[in-house]
Amino acid sequence: MASRMVLVGCVLLLAALLQGATAVTYTVGDSLGWTTPPGGAIAYSTWANQHTFRVGDNLFFNWTGNHNVAEVSSETDYDNCNQKNVEMTLGSPEVNVPLTTKKDYYYICTVASHCSLGQKVKISVKSASGSPTSSTNSTASSLAVGSFSAVLFSIVIAFLH
Ligand SMILES: *[C@@H]1O[C@H](CO)[C@@H](O)[C@H](O)[C@H]1NC(C)=O
């Protein structure tokens, strides 16, 4: 009986660790949303510093009014709000942006002088938890984790009966 309890405990621990690897969707700015922040760019740098972003997570940009989300690849362009090398622009609110790579992502708003006024955010993405290498197929790995957890759960149920 004791060994059975230990086994069940181990399986539950493993399942919990795997659950920790599932993707998170972060609403950029939380209740502030994606806007020209009243106090400048510190609003978004403070927000970003409160989270650990990992490969497979998503950013949710939501706004009302005239804004957009543009990605720039260099920190210099980000710092200077240079819009000449924008990689992609998303013009509709309520947009999900997947973080697929372990790197620094730079997002700005290219409307008027919004970027200079602080509507920009730098997101430093770390490896997916539990895997040292970056995963570019987060959906597939989340599904794999989900089904593996289901199998472990079945094993636990089988032992409890
Ligand atoms: C996006 O923001 C609008 C305006 O604040 C809000 O009404 C809407 O519920 C938000 N959407 C989501 C999915 O949070």
Features:
Immunoglobulin-like; 5-stranded mixed β-sheet; 4 helices; 8 strands; binds 2-acetamido-2-deoxy-beta-D-glucopyranose; membrane; Phytocyanin_dom
How would you summarize the topology of this molecule?
Layout (H helix, E strand, L loop, with lengths): L1 H18 L5 E3 L14 H8 L3 E2 L3 E4 L7 E4 L2 H6 L7 E3 L4 E4 L5 E5 L11 E7 L11 H23 L1
Parallel strand pairs: 1-3, 2-8
Antiparallel strand pairs: 3-6, 4-5, 4-7, 7-8
Helix pairs in contact: 1-4
Bound molecules: 2-acetamido-2-deoxy-beta-D-glucopyranose.
Explain what you see.
The protein is an alpha/beta fold and about 160 residues long. It has a domain at about 20-125: Immunoglobulin-like (Sandwich), CATH 2.60.40. About 35% of the residues lie in helices and about 20% in strands. It has 4 helices and 8 strands. It has helices at about 1-20, 40-50, 75-80, 140-160; strands at about 25, 55, 60, 70, 90, 95-100, 105-110, 120-125. The strands form 2 sheets. A 5-stranded mixed sheet has the order 2-8-7-4-5. Helix 1 packs antiparallel against helix 4. The longest helix is centred in the last third of the chain and has 23 residues, at about 140-160. The radius of gyration is 20 Å and the shape is elongated. The model is unreliable at about 135-140 (pLDDT under 50). The protein binds 2-acetamido-2-deoxy-beta-D-glucopyranose. One of its GO terms (molecular function) is electron transfer activity. Keywords: Disulfide bond, Glycoprotein, Membrane, Signal, Transmembrane, Transmembrane helix. It comes from Tetracentron sinense. Pfam families: Cu_bind_like. This is Phytocyanin domain-containing protein.
